Amino acid sequence: MEIMWPKESNIFGCTLLLCLALLQEGVRSLNLLSVDIPSHVHIGHTVILKCLFELGNDELYSVKWYRGKDEFYRYVPKDKPPGQVFSLEGFKVNQTASNSHQVVLANVGIAASGEFRCEVSAEAPSFHTDSISKKMIIIDPPHQGPKISGGQSQYNIGEAIRVNCSTIQSSPAATLEWFINGKKAPDTALRFYPIISHQDGLNSKVLGLEFYVYDQHFQDDGLRLQCVASFHPFYSVSSEQSITKRHPSLSVLDIKEEKDFKRVGIR
Ligand SMILES: *[C@@H]1O[C@H](CO)[C@@H](O)[C@H](O)[C@H]1NC(C)=O
Ligand SMILES: *[C@@H]1O[C@H](CO)[C@@H](O)[C@H](O)[C@H]1NC(C)=O
Protein backbone atom coordinates (compact mmCIF):
# COMPACT_ATOMS: atom_id res chain seq x y z
CA MET A 1 0.00 0.00 0.00
CA GLU A 2 2.78 2.41 0.88
CA ILE A 3 4.25 1.75 -2.54
CA MET A 4 0.95 2.33 -4.29
CA TRP A 5 0.67 5.95 -3.21
CA PRO A 6 3.73 7.41 -4.83
CA LYS A 7 3.04 5.35 -7.98
CA GLU A 8 -0.49 6.67 -8.32
CA SER A 9 0.53 10.23 -7.66
CA ASN A 10 3.23 9.78 -10.26
CA ILE A 11 0.75 8.58 -12.89
CA PHE A 12 -1.54 11.47 -12.02
CA GLY A 13 1.36 13.89 -12.22
CA CYS A 14 2.36 12.60 -15.65
CA THR A 15 -1.17 12.94 -16.95
CA LEU A 16 -1.24 16.55 -15.78
CA LEU A 17 2.07 17.23 -17.45
CA LEU A 18 0.85 15.58 -20.63
CA CYS A 19 -2.17 17.92 -20.66
CA LEU A 20 0.20 20.79 -20.13
CA ALA A 21 2.30 19.58 -23.05
CA LEU A 22 -0.77 19.38 -25.29
CA LEU A 23 -1.72 22.93 -24.34
CA GLN A 24 1.76 24.09 -25.25
CA GLU A 25 1.79 22.49 -28.68
CA GLY A 26 3.14 25.68 -30.16
CA VAL A 27 6.38 25.08 -28.28
CA ARG A 28 9.08 23.40 -30.33
CA SER A 29 9.24 19.69 -29.71
CA LEU A 30 11.20 16.74 -31.06
CA ASN A 31 11.31 16.84 -34.84
CA LEU A 32 12.75 13.96 -36.84
CA LEU A 33 14.06 15.60 -40.00
CA SER A 34 15.55 12.83 -42.11
CA VAL A 35 17.66 9.72 -42.27
CA ASP A 36 20.85 9.49 -44.27
CA ILE A 37 21.03 5.92 -45.51
CA PRO A 38 22.72 5.00 -48.81
CA SER A 39 20.51 3.09 -51.25
CA HIS A 40 23.33 0.80 -52.40
CA VAL A 41 26.46 -0.32 -50.56
CA HIS A 42 29.27 -2.56 -51.78
CA ILE A 43 29.67 -5.85 -49.93
CA GLY A 44 32.36 -5.73 -47.21
CA HIS A 45 32.21 -1.95 -46.81
CA THR A 46 31.54 0.05 -43.66
CA VAL A 47 28.42 2.19 -43.77
CA ILE A 48 27.29 5.08 -41.58
CA LEU A 49 23.53 5.44 -41.08
CA LYS A 50 22.52 8.86 -39.81
CA CYS A 51 19.38 10.02 -38.08
CA LEU A 52 18.88 13.78 -38.16
CA PHE A 53 16.56 15.30 -35.59
CA GLU A 54 15.97 18.48 -33.59
CA LEU A 55 15.04 18.20 -29.94
CA GLY A 56 13.48 21.62 -29.51
CA ASN A 57 12.46 21.87 -25.87
CA ASP A 58 12.31 18.10 -25.55
CA GLU A 59 14.87 15.91 -23.87
CA LEU A 60 16.02 12.80 -25.71
CA TYR A 61 14.78 9.54 -24.26
CA SER A 62 16.00 7.08 -26.92
CA VAL A 63 17.14 6.50 -30.49
CA LYS A 64 16.40 3.02 -31.76
CA TRP A 65 17.49 1.46 -35.03
CA TYR A 66 15.63 -1.36 -36.73
CA ARG A 67 16.10 -3.50 -39.81
CA GLY A 68 12.61 -4.64 -40.73
CA LYS A 69 11.02 -5.51 -37.38
CA ASP A 70 14.30 -6.27 -35.62
CA GLU A 71 16.02 -3.74 -33.38
CA PHE A 72 19.80 -3.79 -33.69
CA TYR A 73 20.95 -0.64 -31.88
CA ARG A 74 19.57 1.46 -29.07
CA TYR A 75 20.94 4.70 -27.63
CA VAL A 76 19.44 5.79 -24.31
CA PRO A 77 21.41 8.68 -22.77
CA LYS A 78 20.36 7.70 -19.23
CA ASP A 79 21.55 4.11 -19.61
CA LYS A 80 25.06 3.06 -18.63
CA PRO A 81 26.54 2.59 -21.16
CA PRO A 82 24.07 4.55 -23.31
CA GLY A 83 24.63 2.40 -26.42
CA GLN A 84 23.40 -1.17 -26.69
CA VAL A 85 23.77 -3.59 -29.63
CA PHE A 86 21.49 -6.49 -30.58
CA SER A 87 23.23 -8.58 -33.20
CA LEU A 88 21.58 -9.31 -36.53
CA GLU A 89 22.81 -11.33 -39.48
CA GLY A 90 24.71 -9.45 -42.19
CA PHE A 91 26.71 -6.82 -40.29
CA LYS A 92 28.46 -5.84 -37.06
CA VAL A 93 27.68 -2.59 -35.29
CA ASN A 94 30.80 -0.61 -34.42
CA GLN A 95 29.77 0.47 -30.95
CA THR A 96 32.55 2.99 -30.35
CA ALA A 97 31.68 4.85 -33.56
CA SER A 98 27.90 4.83 -32.92
CA ASN A 99 25.97 7.42 -30.92
CA SER A 100 22.64 9.25 -30.74
CA HIS A 101 22.96 10.57 -34.30
CA GLN A 102 24.54 7.68 -36.16
CA VAL A 103 25.10 3.96 -36.17
CA VAL A 104 28.09 2.45 -37.95
CA LEU A 105 27.75 -0.96 -39.61
CA ALA A 106 31.03 -2.72 -40.34
CA ASN A 107 31.72 -5.36 -42.98
CA VAL A 108 28.22 -5.52 -44.49
CA GLY A 109 27.17 -8.78 -46.13
CA ILE A 110 24.40 -9.55 -48.61
CA ALA A 111 22.12 -10.53 -45.70
CA ALA A 112 22.28 -6.94 -44.41
CA SER A 113 19.97 -5.68 -47.20
CA GLY A 114 16.60 -4.43 -45.97
CA GLU A 115 14.44 -1.60 -44.72
CA PHE A 116 16.32 0.43 -42.09
CA ARG A 117 14.40 2.58 -39.63
CA CYS A 118 15.43 5.17 -37.08
CA GLU A 119 12.97 5.80 -34.25
CA VAL A 120 13.47 8.76 -31.91
CA SER A 121 11.57 9.23 -28.65
CA ALA A 122 11.44 12.21 -26.31
CA GLU A 123 11.35 12.07 -22.52
CA ALA A 124 8.35 13.05 -20.47
CA PRO A 125 6.31 15.16 -20.67
CA SER A 126 5.90 15.00 -24.47
CA PHE A 127 6.84 11.31 -25.06
CA HIS A 128 6.88 12.33 -28.71
CA THR A 129 8.01 9.45 -30.98
CA ASP A 130 8.75 9.57 -34.66
CA SER A 131 10.47 7.31 -37.17
CA ILE A 132 11.68 7.31 -40.77
CA SER A 133 12.80 4.33 -42.81
CA LYS A 134 14.73 3.75 -46.02
CA LYS A 135 15.76 0.73 -48.03
CA MET A 136 19.43 -0.22 -48.31
CA ILE A 137 20.68 -2.87 -50.73
CA ILE A 138 24.06 -4.54 -50.42
CA ILE A 139 25.54 -5.22 -53.83
CA ASP A 140 28.01 -7.93 -54.77
CA PRO A 141 28.63 -7.32 -58.46
CA PRO A 142 30.88 -9.55 -60.57
CA HIS A 143 34.23 -8.05 -61.47
CA GLN A 144 34.19 -9.52 -64.97
CA GLY A 145 32.00 -8.72 -67.93
CA PRO A 146 29.05 -10.98 -68.69
CA LYS A 147 29.67 -14.08 -70.80
CA ILE A 148 28.51 -14.11 -74.44
CA SER A 149 27.92 -17.66 -75.66
CA GLY A 150 26.31 -19.73 -78.39
CA GLY A 151 27.39 -17.54 -81.29
CA GLN A 152 29.82 -17.95 -84.17
CA SER A 153 32.38 -15.48 -85.42
CA GLN A 154 31.00 -15.53 -88.99
CA TYR A 155 27.48 -15.56 -90.42
CA ASN A 156 25.85 -15.55 -93.83
CA ILE A 157 23.34 -12.89 -94.75
CA GLY A 158 19.87 -14.21 -93.86
CA GLU A 159 21.17 -16.55 -91.19
CA ALA A 160 19.81 -16.34 -87.65
CA ILE A 161 22.10 -15.19 -84.86
CA ARG A 162 21.22 -16.85 -81.55
CA VAL A 163 23.37 -15.86 -78.60
CA ASN A 164 23.12 -15.71 -74.82
CA CYS A 165 24.49 -13.19 -72.38
CA SER A 166 24.92 -14.51 -68.86
CA THR A 167 26.16 -13.02 -65.62
CA ILE A 168 28.08 -15.07 -63.17
CA GLN A 169 26.75 -14.90 -59.62
CA SER A 170 25.86 -11.44 -58.37
CA SER A 171 23.61 -9.72 -55.87
CA PRO A 172 21.18 -8.26 -56.70
CA ALA A 173 20.60 -9.93 -60.09
CA ALA A 174 22.04 -7.84 -62.90
CA THR A 175 19.91 -5.97 -65.42
CA LEU A 176 21.06 -7.23 -68.81
CA GLU A 177 20.85 -5.33 -72.09
CA TRP A 178 21.86 -6.20 -75.64
CA PHE A 179 23.19 -3.68 -78.14
CA ILE A 180 23.59 -4.30 -81.87
CA ASN A 181 26.17 -1.97 -83.39
CA GLY A 182 25.78 0.34 -80.40
CA LYS A 183 21.97 0.51 -80.65
CA LYS A 184 19.69 -1.07 -78.07
CA ALA A 185 18.33 -4.35 -79.45
CA PRO A 186 14.57 -4.34 -80.13
CA ASP A 187 12.42 -6.16 -77.55
CA THR A 188 11.29 -8.62 -80.22
CA ALA A 189 14.87 -9.89 -80.50
CA LEU A 190 15.22 -10.57 -76.75
CA ARG A 191 14.72 -13.98 -75.14
CA PHE A 192 14.06 -14.02 -71.40
CA TYR A 193 14.96 -16.84 -69.03
CA PRO A 194 14.24 -17.24 -65.32
CA ILE A 195 16.79 -16.02 -62.75
CA ILE A 196 18.83 -18.77 -61.12
CA SER A 197 19.11 -18.17 -57.34
CA HIS A 198 22.02 -19.72 -55.49
CA GLN A 199 22.22 -20.72 -51.84
CA ASP A 200 24.60 -17.92 -50.90
CA GLY A 201 22.05 -15.27 -51.91
CA LEU A 202 23.68 -14.64 -55.28
CA ASN A 203 21.79 -14.73 -58.58
CA SER A 204 22.70 -15.64 -62.15
CA LYS A 205 20.84 -14.30 -65.14
CA VAL A 206 20.66 -15.08 -68.86
CA LEU A 207 19.31 -12.88 -71.64
CA GLY A 208 19.08 -14.30 -75.15
CA LEU A 209 19.32 -12.40 -78.43
CA GLU A 210 17.88 -13.76 -81.65
CA PHE A 211 17.62 -12.03 -85.02
CA TYR A 212 18.25 -12.51 -88.74
CA VAL A 213 21.36 -10.97 -90.18
CA TYR A 214 20.88 -8.40 -92.91
CA ASP A 215 23.50 -6.77 -95.02
CA GLN A 216 22.87 -3.47 -93.26
CA HIS A 217 24.00 -5.02 -90.00
CA PHE A 218 27.58 -5.18 -91.24
CA GLN A 219 29.45 -1.96 -90.79
CA ASP A 220 33.10 -1.25 -91.59
CA ASP A 221 34.32 -3.30 -88.67
CA GLY A 222 31.67 -6.02 -89.00
CA LEU A 223 28.68 -6.57 -86.78
CA ARG A 224 29.18 -5.63 -83.14
CA LEU A 225 27.21 -7.29 -80.36
CA GLN A 226 27.50 -5.87 -76.89
CA CYS A 227 25.96 -7.06 -73.65
CA VAL A 228 25.83 -4.75 -70.63
CA ALA A 229 25.16 -5.98 -67.09
CA SER A 230 24.13 -3.15 -64.74
CA PHE A 231 23.80 -2.97 -61.00
CA HIS A 232 21.98 0.29 -60.65
CA PRO A 233 22.94 2.99 -59.98
CA PHE A 234 26.70 3.07 -60.13
CA TYR A 235 28.13 -0.12 -61.51
CA SER A 236 28.01 -1.85 -64.86
CA VAL A 237 30.23 -4.26 -66.78
CA SER A 238 30.04 -5.20 -70.44
CA SER A 239 31.36 -7.65 -73.02
CA GLU A 240 31.55 -7.45 -76.80
CA GLN A 241 31.66 -9.82 -79.73
CA SER A 242 32.46 -8.94 -83.32
CA ILE A 243 30.96 -10.87 -86.21
CA THR A 244 32.02 -10.82 -89.85
CA LYS A 245 30.35 -11.93 -93.08
CA ARG A 246 31.15 -15.51 -94.03
CA HIS A 247 30.61 -15.16 -97.81
CA PRO A 248 30.75 -11.51 -98.65
CA SER A 249 28.38 -11.01 -101.57
CA LEU A 250 28.86 -7.96 -103.72
CA SER A 251 26.30 -5.56 -102.35
CA VAL A 252 25.74 -1.85 -102.79
CA LEU A 253 27.42 -1.31 -99.44
CA ASP A 254 30.50 -3.30 -100.51
CA ILE A 255 30.94 -1.33 -103.74
CA LYS A 256 30.76 1.90 -101.81
CA GLU A 257 33.31 0.63 -99.35
CA GLU A 258 35.64 -0.44 -102.15
CA LYS A 259 35.45 2.96 -103.80
CA ASP A 260 36.25 4.67 -100.51
CA PHE A 261 39.18 2.37 -100.00
CA LYS A 262 40.57 3.02 -103.50
CA ARG A 263 40.35 6.74 -103.07
CA VAL A 264 42.31 6.51 -99.86
CA GLY A 265 44.82 4.28 -101.66
CA ILE A 266 45.47 6.80 -104.45
CA ARG A 267 46.34 9.57 -102.02
C1 LIG B 1 35.20 1.44 -34.97
O1 LIG B 1 35.29 2.81 -35.21
C2 LIG B 1 36.44 3.42 -34.65
C3 LIG B 1 36.30 4.93 -34.81
O2 LIG B 1 35.90 5.29 -36.11
C4 LIG B 1 37.66 2.84 -35.37
O3 LIG B 1 38.84 3.44 -34.87
C5 LIG B 1 37.68 1.34 -35.16
O4 LIG B 1 38.73 0.78 -35.91
C6 LIG B 1 36.37 0.72 -35.59
N1 LIG B 1 36.36 -0.69 -35.18
C7 LIG B 1 36.01 -1.68 -36.00
C8 LIG B 1 35.99 -3.02 -35.42
O5 LIG B 1 35.72 -1.47 -37.17
C1 LIG C 1 20.52 -19.77 -73.88
O1 LIG C 1 20.26 -20.12 -72.54
C2 LIG C 1 19.07 -20.84 -72.37
C3 LIG C 1 18.85 -21.00 -70.87
O2 LIG C 1 19.97 -21.46 -70.23
C4 LIG C 1 19.19 -22.16 -73.13
O3 LIG C 1 17.99 -22.89 -72.97
C5 LIG C 1 19.44 -21.87 -74.59
O4 LIG C 1 19.65 -23.07 -75.30
C6 LIG C 1 20.67 -20.99 -74.74
N1 LIG C 1 20.82 -20.61 -76.13
C7 LIG C 1 22.00 -20.56 -76.75
C8 LIG C 1 21.98 -20.08 -78.16
O5 LIG C 1 23.04 -20.91 -76.22
TrEMBL record:
Residues 44-133, 146-244 form the Ig-like domain. InterPro entries: Ig-like_dom (IPR007110), Ig-like_dom_sf (IPR036179), Ig-like_fold (IPR013783). Residues 1-29 form the signal peptide. Transmembrane segments: none annotated. PROSITE patterns: IG_LIKE. Keywords: Signal. PANTHER family: BEAT PROTEIN, BEATEN PATH IIIA, ISOFORM D-RELATED. This is Ig-like domain-containing protein.
